[in-house]
Structures are given as structure tokens and as C-alpha cells.
Design a protein that fits this description.
Layout (H helix, E strand, L loop, with lengths): L35 H21 L6 H15 L22 H14 L2 H24 L5 H18 L5 H18 L9 H9 L5 H15 L3 H6 L2 E2 L5 H14 L8 H10 L2 H6 L11 H20 L2 E2 H16 L4 H14 L8 H20 L14 H6 L6 E4 L4 H6 L10 H4 L2 H11 L4 H7 L2 E7 L3 H7 L4 E6 L3 E6 L1
Parallel strand pairs: 1-2, 3-4
Antiparallel strand pairs: 4-6, 5-6
Helix pairs in contact: 1-4, 1-5, 1-16, 2-3, 3-4, 4-5, 4-6, 4-15, 5-15, 6-7, 6-8, 6-15, 7-10, 8-10, 8-14, 13-14, 13-15, 14-15
Length: about 500
């Protein structure tokens, strides 16, 4: 029997105006995922926006005054600092300024942009810190939302510091850049050629170059450890290029000696870091005050990230070692806590990836980012170049056209430099360490009779805070009388 078959013919059917065919499950649409790069860019933009908002709302108050004055002096005289030009107590002493590069950068920006330079300085360097940190996190394996979260949280931690317009802002760029270079160099040692130029820039912009050299030393040290021991402690990311790292360290040390002061600047930074007098008197060199919620977060978040890395037994050797060292050091002196945040960003980037966020979580994250953006736009800004109301503006207005040496509070000495009045002591604490700083604190705390000290330095005026012990003492001292009074400060003149 011959089988028969039916031939089913197919015809071309016009589709003009027809609905497109649906891919995926019936009755549903395939949601298009947002590219990871786009999420990271949004995080970086929000982070820079936060830094810009804080910078634009921060009035001038401390170190930026003498930093700008120093930079302007060097540009005007076409030379580096010699004898101190800003004080009458140490005018015979050479001021070794380890931030000369950052001071010239601020002064040059001020020449071009005027008062807007203060905000631009913070925004540019803070932004570079966030961009570099994002690249560093990506090099360690982080992607998308994790990079964005790291950048935004890091921006919350550094915004206030960046807004202070100090040489420290440069180190916020140099440290993550160095960590990025070392991460890349574990695959390609040619990246190590960038370390000596980086150290050359670092040593001439901020004294934290010692931390930069320590980072390379730690990476070299772990490369010397036998691999089996590294596996026992759960370490990962060990560099195999010991010889190249050794040469890079030698080159970095040599580059760090190329300064206007020669190798002496590196030795000076070492001496300052070990100076007990500065530690005793200056707040940021002391241990942190954990009564502040913000301070608790600055320390607890990096600690939690470090513990999480240890718990997973996948500890990045360089970041784990630095995290532990900087955390312990930050408990002794809070001036290094910002570096703890930068190292914690690297640790967070190495943690195992969690489950992908669902639709609800993504909507909440998007709403949070939108809220942050609205807050940034809504926060008020102060006019560029505004001096903080905590400074004795009226008191120094009184001294316009009057001559005579002024003795003023430590936190007001920087403003005195901005008003072109020589200081007894100001924020350049390392310059005044020794007898001058001791005498200043003795007068401030009334541990000695202030009159002999003030007479020895031929002080004509004292500008001091209202309702302070020294102000009350001078008010009852027959050798002094009040000649000007504001809500912030009293001006005493010698009779």
C-alpha cells in the first residue's frame, strides 16, 4: 500500500502594522538590565555631587588660609620657603613645608578662579579620589552596584576632609592610585614603573609619603612569604614579582628624595610623625572621640568589612595588612582615619558577590539615589570665599591700620596670616614645636603668668575668645584693657 501524504503549503503573510513577536514567557516582558558601567557612573556622579555640595557649603576657617598665603608667597618670590615669613616667634627659623606643591596649586587656582578656587580645589581632588577608587575596586573584581555603593559611601567619609582644602586632599588621590597600580602589577609588572613618579608627586604635595612607601614595603614583604603559608592564613592576591617590587621600592625611595629640601624632607616627615609634643596638643593627632555617631561609623564600617574578609578566609594580603595596621594606628591618632576608609574600599571590593537584587530592591536603590540627588541640589551654599563666623573678623577689622604684635588663639592664627598679621602660633604646628609651643600653651591654659611671656615677645594686643579663662584674667589685669568687643572675640591692648 502506498502511503499518501498531505502537503501543507505556507504563504507569506504581510506583517505591516502587526504587533512584534514576544520573546520570553507568555504574557510577560523581558526586562532590560541596566549596564553595570552605567550604574557605576551614576555612583561616581552622586559621589562627586556630595563632595561638591559639602565644599560649596563649607566656609573658610583654618589651614586653607596659610596654605594659600604660602603658595602666593612662593609664586610672588619665585622661590621655595626659607625663613618663616608669617610669624614673629619663628621668623629666624627655616620653615620646611612638605606641602609646597599643593600650596602652589591652590594659589595658582586662586589666581585664575578667585574665591571659587577653594571649592574647585576640593571638588577636583575629591572627584579624582572617587574615580581612582572606583577603578581600583573594579581591578579587584567589583562591578556595578557594588562599585557605586563603595564610591557613595567613600564620598560620605571624605567630603568634609576634602572641603578643608589642604595638602591632605592630594594624598586622597595618591593612595588609591598606588593601590590600583600594585593590583595591576600582580598581572603585569610593567605597572611598577609608575610608582617612582607617583612618589615624586606625593612627597612634594603631602607628608603622608611615608604611608605610600609603607604600602610598597608590605606588598614586597608578602611576596617573600612562602605560598603554602599564605594559603594557611587564607591570603589571596600575592604578587609573584619579588624582584620587580624590590626595584620599585628602591626607585620610590630615591624619587622621594627629589625635593627642594633633598632627602631632608623625608627625614623631616619621619621626625614630625614621632613628635610627642604635637601629639599632646593637637586634637587630630589624638585618639578619636567615640561619643560621636559619625566617628563610630568611620571606625565600625571598615572593621566590619575586615572581619567579613577574615570570615570568608579570602583575605587580600595587602589590603588586609594595611587595614589592620591603619585601624590600630587610627585608634591612636584620628588623623589617619581617612586612609582607613580608602583601604576599606579595597577590602569591600574583594568580598564574594551576593545574590542579584530583585525588582523591589532596585527600585528602593533608585529612589535612594534620586533622593540624594535632590538633597544635593536643595542644600544651601555659602558664597565663595566666605569666612566662618567662628573667626574673629571684627577683631581684625579693628586692627586695620594699627601696628603691633597680636597674640591670638591657635585656631585663629591661620586667619591672622590671611589678614597679613604676624602670628605667635598658627596651624603650622610642626614649625612651632619646642619652646614656642610650650609657652603658647602655658599662656592659653594659664599654667604660667602670661605677662612675662607676652612682654618677652613684645605683644601689643591679645585677641581672645569671650568667656574664656585667659580673657577673664586679662580683664582683671591692670596692664591690659578691652579696646574692642564682638560676640566672638575681645581685643585687649597693653596700657
Amino acid at each position: 500500500m502506498q502511503a499518501s501524504a498531505r502537503v501543507v503549503e505556507t504563504f507569506d503573510v504581510p506583517t505591516t502594522g502587526a504587533a512584534p513577536a514576544r520573546a520570553g514567557p507568555p504574557g510577560g516582558f523581558r526586562r532590560r538590565r541596566i549596564p553595570q558601567r552605567a550604574i557605576e557612573i551614576v555612583g561616581i556622579v552622586l559621589g562627586i555631587g556630595l563632595v561638591a555640595t559639602v565644599a560649596r557649603s563649607t566656609a573658610l576657617s583654618n589651614d586653607e588660609f596659610w596654605s594659600l598665603a604660602a603658595g602666593q608667597w612662593m609664586l610672588a618670590h619665585h622661590s621655595f620657603m626659607g625663613l618663616d615669613p608669617f610669624s614673629y616667634t619663628e621668623s629666624h627659623r627655616r620653615w620646611v613645608t612638605d606641602e609646597w606643591g599643593s600650596e602652589i596649586a591652590l594659589a595658582e587656582m586662586y589666581r585664575i578662579f578667585g574665591n571659587a578656587a577653594y571649592s574647585l580645589y576640593a571638588i577636583v581632588l575629591g572627584g579624582l579620589c572617587l574615580v581612582t577608587s572606583a577603578a581600583y575596586a573594579r581591578a579587584l573584581g567589583a562591578r556595578g552596584g557594588r562599585v557605586a555603593a563603595i564610591v557613595v559611601l567613600l564620598a560620605l567619609g571624605i567630603a568634609g576632609i576634602a572641603a578643608s582644602d589642604r595638602g591632605l586632599d592630594f594624598s586622597l588621590v595618591w593612595l588609591p592610585l598606588e593601590l590600583l597600580i600594585l593590583t595591576k602589577a600582580r598581572q603585569n609588572p610593567r605597572w611598577l614603573f609608575l610608582l617612582p613618579p607617583l612618589c615624586l608627586l606625593w612627597v612634594n604635595t603631602h607628608g603622608s609619603i611615608l604611608l605610600g612607601l609603607l604600602v610598597v614595603t608590605v606588598e614586597l614583604g608578602w611576596s617573600l612569604i612562602p605560598e603554602r603559608f599564605v594559603q594557611v592564613v587564607g591570603g589571596v592576591r600575592q604578587s609573584p614579582f619579588t624582584g620587580s617590587l624590590g626595584l620599585a621600592l628602591l626607585g620610590s625611595v630615591a624619587a622621594s628624595c627629589l625635593t627642594p629640601y633633598g632627602p631632608g624632607l623625608l627625614a623631616y616627615d619621619v621626625d614630625v610623625s614621632r613628635n610627642g609634643q604635637i601629639t599632646r596638643y593637637i586634637t587630630e593627632w589624638n585618639s578619636p572621640n567615640f561619643h560621636s555617631v559619625l566617628t563610630l561609623l568611620v571606625y565600625c564600617v571598615p572593621l566590619a568589612v575586615l572581619v567579613a574578609c577574615i570570615w570568608t578566609r579570602r583575605i587580600p594580603l595587602l589590603e588586609g595588612s594595611l587595614g589592620l595596621f591603619v585601624f590600630v594606628e587610627a585608634l591612636r591618632t584620628e588623623r589617619v582615619d581617612v586612609y582607613l576608609l580608602l583601604v576599606a574600599a579595597g577590602l569591600a571590593a574583594t568580598l564574594p558577590a551576593g545574590a542579584a537584587w530583585g525588582t523591589t530592591a532596585r527600585r528602593w536603590a533608585g529612589a535612594g539615589m534620586l533622593t540624594l540627588a535632590i538633597v544635593f541640589v536643595a542644600l544651601p551654599a555659602v558664597p565663595a570665599g566666605t569666612v566662618a563666623t567662628s573667626q574673629p573678623i571684627g577683631a581684625f577689622n579693628y586692627h586695620s591700620g594699627r601696628h603691633g604684635r597680636i597674640f591670638t588663639e591657635y585656631t585663629w592664627g591661620d586667619y591672622s596670616v590671611a589678614r597679613h598679621r604676624a602670628t605667635f602660633v598658627d596651624g603650622r604646628t610642626d614649625l612651632f614645636e619646642g619652646p614656642v609651643l610650650t609657652e603658647f600653651m602655658a599662656v592659653t591654659n594659664l599654667t604660667k603668668n602670661p605677662d612675662p611671656i607676652l612682654s618677652a615677645y613684645h605683644v601689643s594686643y591679645v585677641v581672645w575668645g569671650v568667656h574664656t579663662p585667659l580673657a577673664q584674667y586679662l580683664a582683671h589685669d591692670s596692664r591690659w584693657h578691652v579696646v574692642d568687643r564682638t560676640s566672638v572675640a575681645l581685643v585687649f591692648a597693653r596700657r
